[in-house]
Inverse folding.
């Protein structure tokens, strides 16, 4: 019944966890969910107010333009200049998206032919690989391993694969490993991309969720990057707006235009009132980001300390709201996740669900109250 592009998607490995969660919940267990990467904190009120006002304006109720309001794209360019030290032409180098996931998935349709090769990190946000498969193309895994700081080792990519690869997905600060990248790494990326004529699609939704003085660079900060690639970013994690569906892509005008051409035939742009609220987010006071980061930092520290008490060593990440934690000896990531759920009522995400190189790890999310995090740690201490 289903098309080949659906049938060839990898199995959804989190289904087993979802089923187990319902079963444990039905037993009346108080579940602590550290699985989802979805901010529990509210969208700042000045952004909500801007939406309410803008939604009432008749001119915002019509079809938006495909590429997004100029004022929104201008706000993005200004924000990138201030926060990322990257200059962008709002007219040709910014494209509004219905969340960055939408742009990530649609970009494969713009650039990949049937049978083309695309380089995707493993472990990774599953959309990269699955969007490549849905475009009829072949995903080639770049392993992210601990000994390499969870970054791809370009030297180890087979010459024939590198020669034939059309594009590459990257994501730093990284989900699920919480690894970060510096400009030196991005320089290597640009060199590799030039050498093999590979388009770079960098996904940067955690660019503002950084701790302890660390600042996450934009990929576009590196010289030559704008010639080879684009960067996806989003208001979802920065301003607690996952449900709103607004993000953007910035960088190479030709690449952005390819994505725009796909989008003009699939969606009709982002609701203008949401773009107006997005402008309020990007141009208003950025104190809300600092407040968010302070909350996540306290949660991160509480979780790292709690896991340490349970005998699980974990280094504190410099960015994102995840901890990527090695499972104790004798467990697979799925077994350990099932055990935490069954015996402690704590949901974490098994690393295998992010790819074969995610095996041996689980991902803890910090999108819940610090008291619940402490409670989860108490329960884990009790069972280990
Ligand atoms: C959350 C997330 C996204 C999706 O962001 P939206 O803008 O809400 O679609 C994209 N990439 C990664 C790695 C994420 O973790």
């Amino acid at each position: 019944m289903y098309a080949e592009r659906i049938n060839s998607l990898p199995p959804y490995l989190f289904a087993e966890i979802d089923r187990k969660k319902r079963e444990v919940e039905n037993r009346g267990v108080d579940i602590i969910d550290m699985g989802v990467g979805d901010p529990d904190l509210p969208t700042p009120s000045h952004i909500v107010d801007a939406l309410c006002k803008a939604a009432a304006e008749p001119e915002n109720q019509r079809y938006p333009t495909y590429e997004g309001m100029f004022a929104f794209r201008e706000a993005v360019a200004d924000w990138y200049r201030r926060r990322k030290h990257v200059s962008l032409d709002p007219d040709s180098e910014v494209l509004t998206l219905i969340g960055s996931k939408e742009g990530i998935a649609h970009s494969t349709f713009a650039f990949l032919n049937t049978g083309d090769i695309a380089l995707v990190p493993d472990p990774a946000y599953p959309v990269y690989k699955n969007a490549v498969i849905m475009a009829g193309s072949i995903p080639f895994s770049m392993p992210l391993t601990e000994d390499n700081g969870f970054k791809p080792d370009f030297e180890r990519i087979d010459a024939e694969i590198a020669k034939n690869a059309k594009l590459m997905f990257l994501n730093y600060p990284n989900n699920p490993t919480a690894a970060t990248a510096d400009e030196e790494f991005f320089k290597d990326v640009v060199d590799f991309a030039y050498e093999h004529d590979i388009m770079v699609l960098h996904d940067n939704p955690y660019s503002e969720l950084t701790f302890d003085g660390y600042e996450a660079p934009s990929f576009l900060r590196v010289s030559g990057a704008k010639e080879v690639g684009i960067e996806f970013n989003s208001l979802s994690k920065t301003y607690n707006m996952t449900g709103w569906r607004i993000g953007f892509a910035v960088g190479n005008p030709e690449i952005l235009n390819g994505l725009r051409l796909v989008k003009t035939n699939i969606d009709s742009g982002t609701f203008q009132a949401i773009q107006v609220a997005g402008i309020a987010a990007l141009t208003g006071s950025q104190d809300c980001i600092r407040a968010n980061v302070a909350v996540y930092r306290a949660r991160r520290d509480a979780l790292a300390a709690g896991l340490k008490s349970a005998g699980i060593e974990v280094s504190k990440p410099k960015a994102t709201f995840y901890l990527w934690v090695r499972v104790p000896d004798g467990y697979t990531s799925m077994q350990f996740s099932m055990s935490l759920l069954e015996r402690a009522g704590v949901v974490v995400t098994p690393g295998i669900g992010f790819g074969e190189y995610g095996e041996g790890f689980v991902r803890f999310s910090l999108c819940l109250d610090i008291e619940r995090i402490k409670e989860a740690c108490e329960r884990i201490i009790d069972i280990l």
Observations:
- The pocket of pyridoxal-5'-phosphate is lined by residues 37, 99-101, 125, 171, 175, 203, 205, 234, 236-237, 242, 247 (CB under 6 Å).
